[in-house]
Amino acid sequence: MKINLSSDVVNQLSLVGAAAIVILTVYVAGKYIKQMKTDTSTGELSDENWDGIGEYKNPVPTGWIVSFLGTMIWGLWYWFLGYPLNAFSQIGQYNEEVKTYNAEFAKKWQNPDKETLMAMGEGVFLVQCAPCHGLDGGGIDGKAQGFDKRMKENQVLYVIEHGQHQLGYPMGEMPAGMASGDDAKTIAKWIAGGMKGEKPAAFAACASCHGEDGKGLGGQAPNLAEYDATLVKHVLTHGKKGSIGTMPAFNDGRLTDIQMEAVANYIASLKE
Ligand code: HEC
Ligand code: HEC
Fold first, then answer.
1. Apex 8 CA angle, 5 and 14, nearest 5
2. 164 CA distance to ligand 1 middle (Å)
3. Fewest CB within 10 angstroms: 159, 191, 227, 241, which?
4. What is the pLDDT of residues 11-55, one digit of tens each?
């Protein structure tokens, strides 16, 4: 970046300040050197006397007080109105640039075709998600979600047993104990198996919130059947702590909406 001194009032003030300090230093040093040659001591001695060394009763010099207070005022101005908190900063500029770039990006990819979306999803996945979820989305040694299945049996059982309230769906909280014993196991097995074959009767306890087809009633509750964009967006926004481990939130603007949708598309393509 090219620094343009003339356009920045803070830089200009700093330069004026530096020049003033140099001029004052030369002047004061010269004055005292001259004074040391000619001066004889006068004035009233204070009562204290340490080992024969006395001290004159000098008033605090006005110039010193003025510069002391001036420094404090300048310090406050600098912090609250000047450089660090209010005006230009590298972090501020970085954030501005990211914002501009993201806006351009969103405009450019407003309606990507399926192929582009998939390629974008793969790109995002390899950079942001693969370190935990594995290059092929299979999870690394079971330490993160494998995307070959929407959820595994023990994960569903864990949620049924403990309930869950962290993803910020309009439906709110999933209460613990919506099913138990063999019913819970049968449901979990059916969901983990991709919801194929006959639907267990006990799923009725889940359908009121997750829908007859398990797809979450159009975003009211999580889609249990597949990774749709709504689910991935909720997980990325809130992070997730579950029976496998903890997934960090990505809600700091690292991913745009279209990138979330792209990565959801990509994840959906990873199933068996
Ligand atoms: C009262 C509504 C309600 C009922 C009934 C309900 N759920 Fe849920 N479920 C939710 C909500 C809301 C969430 C999201 C919770 C969150 O924010 O973390 C959820 C989350 C889940 C999750 C975790 C999804 C994920 O990706 O984290 C699973 C699995 C699940 N439910 C399975 C079931 C099963 C199986 C049943 C029936 C035995 C059931 N739910 C009954 C509302 C419900
Ligand atoms: C620091 C490691 C880490 C990173 C990075 C990470 N994840 Fe995760 N993710 C996890 C863990 C651990 C889980 C399992 C959470 C649980 O126990 O349910 C998970 C679960 C998930 C789930 C399933 C959630 C559910 O409710 O079924 C999705 C979807 C997901 N991650 C998507 C992503 C995407 C997309 C990215 C990249 C943008 C990503 N993750 C990056 C660790 C990570």
1. 75
2. 7
3. 241
4. 889 999 999 999 999 999 999 999 888 877 778 888 888 888 888
